[in-house]
Specification:
- By secondary structure, this protein is mainly alpha-helical.
- Among the domains are: 190-330, Serine Threonine Protein Phosphatase 5, Tetratricopeptide repeat (Alpha Horseshoe), CATH 1.25.40.20; 353-476, Alpha Horseshoe (Serine Threonine Protein Phosphatase 5, Tetratricopeptide repeat), CATH 1.25.40.
- The protein is built from 24 helices and 4 strands.
- The termini are far apart.
Length: 476
């Protein structure tokens, strides 16, 4: 106990040393170290409270940082400049907003803090408080003239956009009531993206796309924030808001896996056939395997035979995301379901009038889709599902000997994948065993291509497929 008292007294003595120095940082250091005893003693001696540290931050900045209302009050009474800025343009009010401290925000505003003093990046206290989710702080700032539609410089984001992005629905409501622009957009930028590069593929497709251009509703769609979306739509937001790449709010919601938000947009009259982004809500719902959403889209007039025009960008998590690979371009939802061997989805779409005789570019029929020779790991179904999909295609009248423009048949694809049950089924249905593609390759020849040197299992599977084909009567 004696040691603690001695240490405290020593700190006070040290902080009180050298009074009157022009760079006297003792007040700042007292607040920074939360030493209230030293602060009160220094203020009694009228030590300058506005001496900054190296980056321009003052004692009042530190009081705001620590959310120390008592220290802030003492400093303000002693003449602290409430609008002092650090090297980034940050004021004590900005720090209070960063903390989401409504009480500190109110105290500083009452003391004359400028509600529109922005960082060098253009970020205002209102934006920061909105991102932090401080409803009372946001209301205080708005009441004192904070510019509700100010934009930061990097991407043109507003307080409303940040509130929606962080899913602070109560703040969203306050900003909307305060006159926030429902139609504001983030800036857009041109980016080169890949639409699919995988180990068993030679090259992917690289395209330039516009990224960004998101409105508050598009952020709500991406995050699945139904509460904020309802507020925005109720205030007049456009249910068909479209991002810079052409994707609508409905497409963004489904692509992001937010079924409830998608259904809300449907209930509000979203255009189910919007395809400015190159693909429709139905394409992505089928790709994601969302049967209930597919039913809802079709019930509202979605075009069951819409043709995919553009692929989606590939991300690092595409093996989980419902991406549309560039090899899907030119396909209908039913062809995509067949490619994924989603048997239940195939039946659902056929029942809803999908054209089962559709042929994708290059001559790729529905029968070929589940056993596409260039099938990718992220889109490849297992053998049993592929067999079921092939059976459905045959039931629907698919020609087992139809060939692509390169001369490949469904049997070529099944052989290359090593799907023996599919090979047997196709042979049973009359598939030609010795058919050659335009490269002169038979189905047997396909079993020796693209063997994975790192997987003995793949090698053995394809060897067994070659043996099966020979047993069925195929020749080299």
């Amino acid at each position: 106990m004696f040691f603690r008292s001695f240490l405290s007294s020593s700190i006070v003595v040290l902080l009180l040393a050298n009074p009157g120095a022009s760079d006297d940082r003792r007040v700042l250091d007292a607040v920074k170290s939360k030493n209230k005893q030293a602060l009160q003693a220094l203020l009694t001696q009228r030590v300058d409270v506005n001496v900054p540290q190296g980056d321009g931050a003052t004692a009042l900045h530190w009081a705001a940082h620590w959310d120390d209302l008592e220290a802030a009050d003492l400093l303000i009474r002693a003449g602290a400049r409430v609008n002092a800025v650090d090297d980034n343009g940050g004021t004590p009010l900005w720090l209070a907003s960063l903390n989401g401290s409504a009480a500190m925000i109110e105290k500083l505003l009452q003391a004359g803090a400028n509600p529109n003093a922005a960082l060098k990046s253009g970020e205002t206290p209102l934006m920061t408080a909105s991102r932090s989710g401080s409803l009372a702080g946001v209301k205080s700032l708005l009441a004192r003239g904070a510019m509700v539609n100010a934009k930061e410089a990097s991407r043109g984001q507003t307080a409303l956009i940040w509130a929606v992005a962080q899913q602070h629905a109560d703040v969203v409501r306050a900003l909307v009531e305060g006159g926030a622009d429902l139609h504001s957009r983030t800036s857009s930028r041109q980016e080169v993206v890949t639409t699919g590069v995988y180990r068993d593929e030679t090259f992917g497709a690289f395209v330039e796309v516009q990224q960004g251009g998101f409105t508050p509703l598009l952020f709500a769609a991406r995050n699945g924030d139904t509460a904020s979306a309802e507020i925005l739509l109720g205030a007049g937001a456009n249910v068909d808001d479209t991002a810079a790449d052409g994707t609508s709010a409905l497409v963004v919601a489904i692509h992001s896996g937010h079924d409830a938000l998608a259904n809300l947009l449907l209930d509000k009259g979203a255009d189910v056939n919007a395809m400015r982004g190159g693909y429709s809500a139905l394409h992505i719902a089928v790709r994601a395997g969302k049967q209930e959403l597919v039913k809802a889209l079709l019930a509202r007039g979605a075009n069951v035979d819409a043709v995919l025009v553009k692929p989606t960008a590939t991300t690092r998590s595409t093996r989980r995301d419902p991406s549309l690979h560039y090899s899907f371009v030119g396909a209908t939802p039913f062809w995509i379901a067949a490619r994924l061997a989603d048997v239940d989805m195939m039946r659902l779409l056929v029942d809803q009038g999908a054209t089962s005789s559709f042929v994708a570019p290059g001559g790729r029929t529905i029968l070929m889709a589940p056993v596409t020779a260039a099938a990718l790991p992220a889109f490849r179904a297992n053998e049993s599902r592929s067999l079921e999909a092939v059976k459905i295609a045959v039931e629907l009248g698919a020609d087992v000997n139809a060939a692509t423009e390169q001369g490949d048949t469904a049997l070529h694809g099944a052989a290359k994948l090593g799907y023996n049950t599919v090979v047997e089924f196709l042979a049973e249905k009359g598939a030609r065993l010795d058919v050659k593609n335009k490269r002169g390759e038979t189905p047997v020849a396909m079993t020796s291509q693209y063997l994975d040197p790192f997987s003995d299992q793949v090698v053995q599977e394809r060897k067994s497929t070659a043996e099966l084909l020979r047993k069925l009567g195929a020749k080299e």
